[in-house]
Amino acid sequence: MSAEYSDFLRQYLTVAIFAVVGIGLGATLLGIGRIFRPTRPQEQKYLVYESGVDPVGTGWSQSQIRYYIFALLFVLFDVEAVFLFPWATRLEEYGSFGLVEMLVFVAILALGLLYAWRKKVLRWV
Asked: How confident is residue 45, by pLDDT bands cut at 50, 70 and 90?
């Protein structure tokens, strides 16, 4: 093996050693915690806690998928805003090509918003 190839493998060996030491340290500390922590099972520890109010009904309920889709749409348009701010600060350098590219980007996102609106996903029921 050449010296160049050996240095390459040595770098990966260093990373592997650090990974093994890190995983081993984490596992050791979790094991020590498991051995020394007090274990006193009580029925009230397993009750659902709702801001100091006694729970009513079961702790499990099915949520509508609409709320998750609403949250994902919020994240999508939040990311859009992250892309719009740097573009707006450097618009002069990008010129008309940058303007057209951003209009295409916003148009694609607007089509997604229109699709979600037509499917009545944006209704908060």
From this structure: confident
